[in-house]
TrEMBL record:
It comes from Winogradskyella maritima. This is Peptide chain release factor 3. The gene is prfC. It comes from the Bacteria. GTP binds at residues 17-24, 85-89, 139-142. NCBIfam families: prfC, PRK00741.1, small_GTP.
Length: 529
């Protein structure tokens, strides 16, 4: 197969949802369609379950699963599909944001009863800002839920999307009869008592046909005709260009658990979802069909086996082909590296591969060379943009609890930060180190991992910080910046990349500071132009 057709048949995407909406179940059904797994229950959820074990022990256990589910690849109708796993737990939102830099599109799963939930809102916002094409799947139609039109309204208002239903439910919950597929113009009937795969669809290209009344009864047929008329009156027609530009989001209804409406979703997905997209670097836009290989690290998994310092760096291939045993330039370190056993991912296993294409993810064994965001090329100096850090929500001083192990402690902190577990800030005033995290759970994880993987002990001390803002002086030499640096010295720190950060102790302080020093820009993410 030619290089171009290899690109054209790839679809790399992520499924995002609030925990419990059905992401794992949907993933599993998609894999079943691809023949990548044989039975339900094969995909382990990477969810943090509340249980007997303490949360952070659970996270450790899940870390193993999470390597296995990082990338789930399968073939369907001649396309190669790569699903990138996104943790739903809010404490791991940063991981998900980073993974979203490596997807070409997403499917958003929404629970029909719960509607749009908090995590969905945050994640969709990130996708919307980057114009990532999105398909919405409204799940659990076998349960009593919200009215379909109300839900579509909610999706538009809360998520700021413009939707176009591609399918529409006939009844719901106890009365759920099936779905009408506007895309294929057929009716797919649901038989509630069977949890089996329901594959039979009936072609109803003309909704006024009596066949519809026979299939679902007069009352339901009448209601469906009215609903579809409304749908066609209110919502714009599907337009592929608008979808690909991120301006229109098709919506499907179904029940992942019952494998209902999933095939329709998948069929439409392979037809409309984008092939690997071009990516902006600091230097230029890089297109997937360029000859030369480029890619970037979006995730690092470390120390799965405490006896080896093993790390697996996940690279998304942006352009060209990635080949085994070929020297590539690690741009940040200006160093050539060769990889003898790059891993490609299949449903639940990884295998060494000789060649990978744009859209694919390869896992590279790493001894500490990589950081999240690093770029690899065939020699050209390219730095991919777009893995920003957001302000953490929690801040604590980290102290060394075993003076004999300070080397281990700093090495451990350094590597955990490279992995993106948390953010490190070093205070300008006294060099003290502050760890910022999205969730409180991470402090336990860091403490545990420092001890078990690096033999170092730490303690924490609370620090009252409301937000970290990245400081951009419009003029470094002006008096205003000098005054700011002097007055706020106690609250200034450097992040890991050496960028200046202001640790504001309250919203009020932040506002006052912004007003007092108008020539300084305060950014809420580490990456700005
Ligand atoms: P995730 O947290 O988004 O990965 O959600 P899961 O896939 O683990 O699903 C959460 C729960 O919802 C599980 O108990 C599933 O069995 C259930 N579930 C998923 N899809 C459906 C569905 O279509 N109908 C019903 N009734 N339950 C579902």
């Amino acid at each position: 197969m030619s290089f171009k057709s290899e690109i054209a048949r790839r679809r790399t995407f992520g499924i995002i949802s609030h925990p419990d909406a059905g992401k794992t179940t949907l993933t599993e059904k998609l894999l079943l369609f691809g023949g990548a797994i044989q039975e339900a229950g094969a995909v382990k959820s990477n969810k943090i379950k509340k249980g007997a074990t303490s949360d952070f022990m659970e996270i450790e256990r899940q870390r193993g699963i999470s390597v296995a589910t990082s990338v789930l690849a399968f073939e369907y109708k001649g396309t190669k599909i790569n699903i990138l796993d996104t943790p739903g737990h809010k404490d791991f939102a940063e991981d998900t944001f980073r993974t979203l830099t490596a997807v070409d599109s997403v499917i958003v799963v929404i629970d029909v009863a719960k509607g749009v939930e908090e995590q969905t809102e945050k994640l969709v916002e990130v996708c919307r800002m980057r114009n990532i094409p999105m398909i919405v799947f409204i799940n659990k139609l076998d349960r009593e839920g919200k009215d379909a039109f109300d839900l579509l309204d909610e999706v538009e208002q809360k998520l700021g999307l413009k939707v176009t239903p591609m399918s529409f439910p006939i009844g719901m919950g106890y009365d759920f009869k099936g779905i009408y597929n506007l895309w294929e113009q057929n009716v797919n009937l649901f038989s509630g008592d069977s949890r089996k795969n329901i594959e039979e669809t009936t072609e109803i290209s003309d909704l006024s046909s009596e066949k519809l009344d026979e299939l679902i009864g007069d009352a339901s047929a009448e209601e469906l005709r009215d609903n579809i008329e409304l749908v066609q009156g209110i919502y714009p027609k599907f337009d592929k260009t608008k979808y690909l530009e991120g301006h229109l989001q098709p919506v499907f209804f179904g029940s992942a658990l019952n494998n209902f409406g999933v095939r329709e979703l998948l069929d439409a997905f392979v037809e409309i979802a984008p092939t690997p997209r071009a990516k902006q670097s600091e230097e230029r836009l890089v297109k997937p069909d360029e000859d030369k290989f480029t890619g970037f690290v979006f995730k690092i998994h470390a120390n799965m086996d405490p006896n080896h310092r093993d790390r697996l760096a996940f690279i998304k291939i942006v352009s060209g082909t990635f080949k085994r045993n070929t020297p590539y330039l690690h741009v940040r370190n200006n160093k050539k590296l060769k990889f003898s056993s790059p891993n490609a991912f299949f449903a639940e296993k990884k295998e060494i591969v000789d060649i990978s294409y744009p859209g694919d993810i390869v896992g590279l064994h790493d001894t500490g060379n990589f950081k999240i965001g690093d770029t690899l090329t065939e020699g050209e100096v390219i730095n991919y943009k777009g893995i920003p850090s957001f302000s953490p929500e929690h801040f604590r001083y980290i102290n060394n609890a075993d003076p004999l192990k300070s080397k281990q402690l700093y090495k451990g902190i350094d590597q955990l930060m490279d992995e993106g577990v948390a953010q490190l800030f070093t205070l300008e005033l006294n060099g003290r180190k502050v760890i910022g995290t999205v969730g409180a759970l991470q402090y336990e994880v860091i403490q545990y991992r420092l001890e078990h993987e690096y033999g170092a002990k730490c303690t924490y001390e609370n620090l009252n910080v409301h937000k970290a803002c990245w400081v951009e002086p419009t003029d470094k030499k002006n008096q205003e910046f000098e005054e700011f640096s002097r007055v706020k010295q106690r609250f200034l720190a450097k992040d890991k990349r050496g960028q200046l950060v202001f640790l504001a102790d309250s919203m009020f302080t932040l506002q006052m500071t912004q007003q007092k020093y108008p020539s300084i820009i305060f950014h809420f993410t580490s990456e700005y132009d």
